[in-house]
């Protein structure tokens, strides 16, 4: 509903049989309202946003990243 374009998506876990971690790079800033909607989704235990300055360390994104921990 927020019309956010996902640039890349990575899924991992903290260890075998443990918490899943999703890292999603998006093309625009995630609003506080959208972050609250993400936090309200079933299975989401934590969600944070990070802003990285484009450069050598962010070759495939314009700098907006969101990390979500899932049950």
Report on the structure:
- Helix content is about 10%, strand content about 40%.
- By secondary structure, the chain is mostly beta strands.
- A four-stranded antiparallel β-sheet has the order 1-2-4-3, covered by helices on one side.
- Strand 1 and strand 2 form a beta hairpin.
- It is globular.
Brief sketch in words of this structure:
The protein is mainly beta and 71 residues long. The protein is 11% helix and 42% strand.
End-to-end Cα distance, whole Å, is 23 Å
For the largest beta-sheet, the strand count, sense and barrel status come to:
4 strands, antiparallel
Give start-end ranges of low-pLDDT stretches.
none
Major sheet: arrangement of strands: 1-2-4-3
Structural class: mainly beta
Q: What value does the Rg take, in angstroms? A: 13 Å
Which characteristics define this entry?
71 residues; mainly beta; four-stranded antiparallel β-sheet; 1 helix; globular
């Amino acid at each position: 509903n927020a019309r956010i374009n996902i640039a890349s998506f990575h899924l991992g876990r903290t260890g075998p049989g443990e918490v899943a971690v999703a890292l999603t790079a998006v093309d625009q800033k995630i609003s506080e309202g959208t972050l609250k909607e993400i936090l309200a989704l079933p299975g989401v235990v934590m969600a944070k946003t990070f802003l990285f300055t484009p450069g050598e360390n962010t070759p495939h994104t314009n700098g907006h990243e969101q990390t979500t921990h899932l049950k």
